[in-house]
Every structure is written in structure tokens, then in C-alpha cells.
């Protein structure tokens, strides 16, 4: 008898889907038998053939009929189960897709295997672009540590983990999410998979921020006559309240949106120091910080402000915002300035003190430098003053000092500067001298004037002076150097014979001789065509295409060494040879540009470094245009790199020159930005094209915690002024990635291309272009 009714042969899906026994199934099949006889004809044929007995025939028909009905009933059950499974599966996918929160399934490597519609919508991308990518691709860099910490705890403990972090959406915005993760085992592959639930908590975070704002406003209410504004270091955005507009005169639509735009309103002397203080505070928010700055109002006037900084941190202790509680202290600063002006004068003699001496003397030096004049510094020391002061007391000594000061004032001209450093030391700065003889004559007159005895309280007090003389520009280019050398010369005069004067010492003279010999070699080098230009590529940060080159000056020697530019350029500056050297650089750069064009290269702009003295020389523009005309190229094939000090040395002259260069299509870049005073508040008035970040700042990118924020601020500032930004000194892939991520326009460095000769550059360019394609 067939054993097909054995439950061991029943499909597993059927056994699992229904609880009926084999006996129940047979009973139900037999109950249905009375309605069908479909197997009877087949059995009758078998009996007619003589292969079955009538009894066997009857039993066989019965069993076959029962078996057929059992199969039909089983098929009906299986179809019903399949329909129910399809309905259940559709309901599951509907719930999975239409759930209000995001669901992800990830493999062991963290790659997304499944994602529901809510997860894709949260990130603003199609689901197909989400599947197969690592989840870290969408997590903000600053929140990666929180993600990996949650993941490591999950895999080490196997227990459900919860964390909060931000995801970067396709439109560049970010959302806060609550991440819940758990592990499970895939029954089909036996692999461990982990599931993640993403809940949007952006509104909750915004509510927390509003709560902090309420606290801030309560604190502000406790402090009279203060206003506040906020800076978000992560986005560089700034937010100002209505009170700020009242203080500054700017309409809300005119208010800065980024920190760089705000920095552009600062006084030129305040911009860089304030930016460094702000970024430094982000690195050490627990340290109390107060900043002082001058901000230009809409009416063009500057107001003094003091701001105290308060860090607002997120749950992980990271600085999310910086609150600046600001007070207008202009009146107080004006009173302090008046007090400082009084304090800058020596209270005993009424002469300028050291601080005022340096301030005024620097202006005198700048004037002499622009006019090409000499200037002398005389350093006086009273030879017998200490003995007189010890013998007759301080009152007599003080009267003697006042008498000496008066004689000096009577001896020198009104345009000369007479100051007291302290004790019995006086300094006189002589302007408008023709040569060293003028300084010597003034020194002799002073000695003669100071030599007669001083009648004080019935005493006749002899007090002669020894003095040293330093000359500008021969002995130094700044007041500190000139005073130091004049002091040294005075010491030698006193040792030689009190009451006399002496110019700088022999040691200093030897240095001058060395510089004179170097000057002679410079002249020989220029006449012998010994100088060379090498070219370092400048690349577009995103595409890697060559946007130009920087021309760098080299002076090779017969022994195959080079004289370093920092050694010969200062000599070229003060000797005036910088103008002839600059003319040669323009000519050679134009010649090379034409040679590259003739070699089949596209137009490649060449950047040339220009010193302040070159830039403000009356023949500067003529040199540039003559060189381009001689080569038959457009002047716009060149661009210039200038320091902020050069541009600020003569503001009106700089404006005029920059305007003329713009008409010639010659671009101008601000060189080495970030290390010195770059007159931030006034740069927006200059028609610049590009800003170069100082090499030293770029090379500190990986070693200083605050440097990324500093560089981002500089980039933001440059973009606020609509300038292209070039990072100089990029020496690693990580540096390149940083500047690419923060929208720096161009990069330059040995990592990307070393300085090379013009001939070698042709081959390098073609190889680089081939790699790009």
C-alpha cells in the first residue's frame, strides 16, 4: 500500500503552517469522497485487464481517491500560507519603509546593507546611494570619535548602545540624530550583522540651545549697558542682536555673517591679534579670556570695545559656540590715551621717554626712507653725573639733568627729536642730514654747549658728555638697532677720551665692509648675468590643474653653491641695486613666458615677488611694461606678490599703483599673510586678486591644535574680501586634503612640485597634464 500519507513525507512548510494531524487530514478527505469518482474508470480498466481482484480494486480506488483529496487540500493550505506570508511580508516592508525613524542594517565592516525610506530622507539622498557605503561617510568629522566609541562598545559587549552625533546631509546641512545599535545573527549566512536606528533630535538640540539662550539673556540682564554676539567655530558664522546694530550703525542686512567679514571691520593693528586670541580660546575654553579691539562703525569712525568670552559646549565638551559679552569703552580708552600721552614724557625733564622716542623716531625713519635721506642718532652719557649725584644728593642731580635737557633743546633744531632714556642717558635723532659730516658737526656743537659748568644751589658743577653716533641707513634700518649701535659707539668714545664723540665701532664697520664687498659682487653678478630664475608650480586645489608658477631668484656661484636670497637681497635693498635686479627679473620672466608659449604650453601666469622699495620706486611700472613689450607679451602674463607692510607704507601711493596695475590686468597678491601686520581693516579697500597664507602657518597645521581654526579663519576672511586663497608650503597629502575641504583655491609646495628651471618645467608640465587626463 502506498505510504504517501505518512506525515514524514509532508512538506515542512505545511507542518509548520498548520497544526492538523495526519488522521485529521485523512478524515477530512474521506468525508469529501462521496462527491467524486474520478479514479473509478482507471481502476475499472485495471480489473478488466485481470491485474486486480475486485476487493483489491475497491480498496485501491478508495485509497487513491483519499490521497488525491489530501494533496488538493495540502495545496490549498500551502497557497493560503503563501498568501498570508506575502501579506505579512508586504506589511513588514510597509512598516520598515514608512517608519518615522531611520533603520539601517550594516555588515561587520560598517557598510550599509539595507536602509529604509526614512533613513534616506533624513540624509536627503536616494536609498540606492546609501546602500553599500560606510556609515562614517555621512558622519561629521568632529563626531567620528563618538561613533567609533559606540561601535567598539557594541562589538565588545554585544549589548545595545546609544549615542548622539551629527550627520552631514546631501545639501551640506547637518542634523543631530540619536543612534541606537544592536547585534543579531543572519540565519541564512550565519554572519553577525548590526542594526541601527536613527532618530532625528535636531529640534531637541535646538530647544537645548534655546534654553541656553534663555540663561544667557538672564545673565545679560544682570549686567548693565552690555550687548552680546555669538561665533560658531564649526561653521565660522556670527550672530548679532539688535543692540549691536545700534552700537555700530550697521543695518541688520549689512551685519557680517562670517568671522572673516567681522574681522574686516577691525582696525588694521587689531585684526590678526584678535583672530589669534579667538582661535586660541577655542583650544582652551576653560581659560578666562578678554579681548580689546577697535571696530569701524558705518560712519567710518572707530570705537573701542572690550569683550569677555564664554564657551558654550556640547554634551561631549566640544566648543559649539562662543558668546562674547561686549562693552563700548571708547570714552575710557580716550581718557587712558590722554594719561598715556602724559606718561610717555619724562616727568623730570618733560622730554619724550623711550616709548614716545621709538614711536616718533619710527615716523622719522619712514619719512627718511621714502625721501631717500640720511638720519643720525646721537647717544649721550654724562661723564661725571654719578659722582655729582652721590656727592650732593638727588635734588642737585635732578636739577642738573633738567639743565642738561634744556641745553640740548636750545642746541638742536625744532625738527630734531630730543629724548631721555633714563638716568643720565639722552638720545637725539637728527633729521634732514646730508652726510656724516653734518652729524659730526651737530655732535661737536652739543659737546661745546654741555661743557660749561652748571650753577646749581651756589655750586659750579662741571659735567661733560660723551656720545656715539649711528647713521641711517648705513648702520641700521630701525630705531632699536640705531640706538644700540650708537650706545656701543658712545662706550668706545668714553673709553678713548671722555667728552668726545665716535661713530660706530670697528666691528660694526667690518660688517659694513662685508656688505660693501657683497654689493660689489652683486654688481658683477648683474653685469655677468649670473642670476637665474626657477619656477615652482601653483595648482588648483580641487582639479589639480596648473594655475601658474612662482618665480624664485637664485644666485649660483662657481663652486656650485648658492648665495641665499636672505643674504643678498637686504644688501640689494639698501644699496639700491634692487631696482636693477628687479628689472632683470621682469625681463627674464617675460622671456620665459614667451619661450613656454613657443614650446606649445598654454599661457601660464608667472608670479614675481616685489619688495616695498621696488614697488614705491618711481620707475617701477615703467620697468614692468618695458619688459612685457620687449618680449611681445601681455603684462597680465605676470602677477606680483607684495607684503602687507609694502602696501601700507604709502597708502595713497599703493592705491594709485594698484589701480594702474589693474588696468594692465596685472594681478596683485598679498604675500605671507598671517605672520605680520597686514592691515586687515584696510585690505578691503585695495584692488587685490589673491591672498597667500604664510608658509610657516601651513607647516604648523599638523603640530598645533589651534592652527586648523586659524587657517580656516584666514580662508574665510579672504573669501569675505572676494580674494582667491593660496596656501604656500603644502608638504603632505593631509595638508592638501585640509585645504581642499575648506575651499582654499590654490596650493603650492614641494609635495606638489619643486622649484625647477624653465626648460625642466616644460617636461614636468606635460607629464602632469598627462596624469590629469
From TrEMBL:
Residues covered by the GGDEF domain: 373-506
Coiled-coil region(s): 64-91
InterPro entries assigned to the protein according to its UniProt record, in alphabetical order: Biofilm_reg_signaling, EAL_dom, EAL_sf, GGDEF_dom, Nucleotide_cyclase, PAC, PAS, PAS-assoc_C
GO biological process, alphabetically ordered: regulation of DNA-templated transcription
Domain EAL residues, every copy: 515-769
Domain PAC: residue ranges: 161-213, 289-341
PANTHER family xref list: BIOFILM ARCHITECTURE MAINTENANCE PROTEIN MBAA, DIGUANYLATE CYCLASE DGCP
Family annotation (NCBIfam families): GGDEF (TIGR00254), sensory_box (TIGR00229)
Full protein name: PAS domain S-box/diguanylate cyclase (GGDEF) domain-containing protein
